[in-house]
């Protein structure tokens, strides 16, 4: 997807600059050309020699480099790329972008460019959370600057929290997404995924065997077609999809709240294995053994998230896709489920243990729509995801 594209990579002066070496390598592996620009401070963290060697191109760093001025000029340099990427985007660089400064090569290029800009912030957590920083981020977002990260975690400065630069592969995915001219460009899609955990007491819960693999694959396939994806997931084993807004929840009620917060969307794909029941009143403290007396759990029905959203009078997504995990009469049950829940499509699969589908890497699904039933051959979950994403793109394209 990046073949033939050119990225102007502005490397800011932060400890995360070392990750840019890997980022350049991965971009070039995907066929992209990288024009590197380093701020003066960046040179304190990585050498221009390493950057130039990996990029296979000269590093630009001086605004008043007259040779370059004569040959190309900084205005032209700002226009050669399909995308400008700033990584790491330090607090100072972001502030200067927000303020419209143009006092070195990096800031001048950012002012002069007419191509989209993606930034990967990296800074100390307190700097990131500072009101001035948040003001600058809001201003830059308002100007149409795209952001990837920062992630939360342990930081080089010994503190913990948001501020860590995204990993190179996360930045690559964001770059692909920013440059995707796929059929879902400009579309917002919600995906639910994984199991839910319904608490019994502070240490015990009711769960199911869903790994979240199919939901993750669907989210990534939608991103690859250019969609903005909100991924609401229960505690799943599968890795979180790259390039999505991820909302982590535990229980069905929390999942419903997160789904409602994510609306409006153009389409919803409800791949989560939501627990049908919860313990009516979870114990506030751990239930203790009591002389052989067995605890009695009283259940309450969970909200049906798919049905709730499908039956919304206002703001219902244009396309609602549910899943049906069945062990008997797969098609008949799925058809009945489609009507009962009020969704448009049901992706039905047979989850008897002998199929190896639940928790496995393959899936054999039937797409149940108003028009009939399509039987898809058994294939990898990623292939099911790609095919479903294409069908969603077709359906939204016909709206
Ligand atoms: N679903 C949901 N909220 C629930 C239960 C299910 O959103 N509380 C969604 C699932 O994400 C899936 C679809 O509904 O897209 C079907 O889930 P499934 O568990 O197969 O259906 P149930 O309603 O539980 O029906 P049954 O258990 O009778 O098969």
Largest sheet: 8 strands, mixed
User: How are the strands of the largest sheet arranged?
Assistant: 12-11-8-13-16-17-19-20
Query: What percent of residues are in strands?
Result: 15-25%
Going by CATH, what is the homologous superfamily of the largest domain?
CoaB-like
CATH fold annotation of the largest domain: Rossmann fold
What does this structure look like?
By secondary structure, the protein is of the alpha/beta class. It has two domains: 6-179, Rossmann fold, CATH 3.40.50; 188-397, CoaB-like (Rossmann fold, 3-Layer(aba) Sandwich), CATH 3.40.50. The chain contains 14 helices and 21 strands. The strands form six sheets. It has an eight-stranded mixed beta sheet, with helices on both faces. Strands 2-1-3-4-5 form a five-stranded parallel beta sheet, sandwiched between helices. It has a two-stranded antiparallel sheet with strand order 6-7. Helix 1 (19-29) runs parallel beside helix 2. The longest helix is centred in the last third of the chain and has 17 residues, at 381-397. It is globular, with a radius of gyration of 25 Å. It starts with 5 loop residues before the first strand and ends with a helix. The mean pLDDT is 92. Cytidine-5'-triphosphate is lined by residues 192, 252, 270, 272, 274, 276, 302, 304-306, 322-325, 337.
């Amino acid at each position: 997807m990046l073949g033939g594209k050119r990225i102007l990579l502005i490397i800011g002066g932060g400890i995360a600059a070392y990750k840019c070496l890997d980022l350049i390598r991965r971009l070039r592996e995907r066929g992209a050309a990288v024009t590197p620009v380093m701020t003066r401070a960046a040179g304190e963290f990585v050498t221009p020699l390493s950057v130039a060697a990996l990029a296979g191109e000269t590093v630009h760093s001086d605004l008043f480099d007259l040779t370059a001025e004569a040959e190309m000029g900084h205005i032209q340099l700002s226009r050669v790329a399909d995308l400008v990427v700033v990584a790491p985007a330090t607090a100072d660089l972001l502030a200067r972008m927000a303020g419209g400064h143009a006092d070195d090569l990096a800031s001048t290029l950012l002012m002069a460019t007419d191509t989209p800009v993606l930034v990967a912030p990296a800074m100390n957590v307190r700097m990131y959370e500072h009101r001035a920083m948040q003001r600058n981020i809001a201003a830059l977002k308002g100007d149409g600057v795209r952001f990837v990260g920062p992630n939360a975690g342990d930081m080089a400065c010994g503190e913990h929290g948001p501020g860590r630069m995204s990993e190179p592969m996360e930045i690559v995915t964001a770059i692909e997404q920013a440059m995707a001219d796929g059929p879902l460009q400009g579309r917002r899609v919600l995906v639910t995924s994984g199991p839910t955990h319904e608490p019994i007491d502070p240490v015990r819960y009711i769960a199911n065997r869903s790994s979240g693999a199919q939901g993750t694959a669907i989210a990534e396939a939608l991103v690859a077609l250019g969609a903005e994806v909100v991924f609401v997931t229960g505690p799943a084993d599968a890795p979180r999809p790259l390039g999505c807004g991820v909302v982590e929840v535990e229980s069905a009620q929390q999942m419903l709240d997160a789904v409602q917060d994510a609306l409006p969307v153009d389409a919803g794909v409800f791949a989560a294995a939501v627990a049908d029941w919860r313990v009516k009143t979870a114990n506030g403290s751990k239930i203790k053994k009591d002389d052989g007396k067995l605890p009695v759990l009283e259940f309450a029905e969970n909200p049906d998230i798919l049905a709730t959203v499908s039956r919304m009078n206002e703001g219902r997504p244009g396309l609602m896709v549910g899943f049906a995990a069945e062990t008997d009469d797969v098609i008949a049950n799925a058809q009945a489920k489609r009507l009962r829940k009020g969704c448009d499509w049901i992706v039905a699969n047979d989850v008897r243990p002998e199929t190896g589908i639940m928790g496995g890497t393959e899936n054999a699904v039937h797409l149940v729509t108003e028009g009939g039933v399509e039987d898809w051959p058994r294939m990898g979950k990623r292939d099911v995801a790609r095919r479903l994403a294409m069908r969603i793109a077709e359906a939204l394209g016909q709206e």
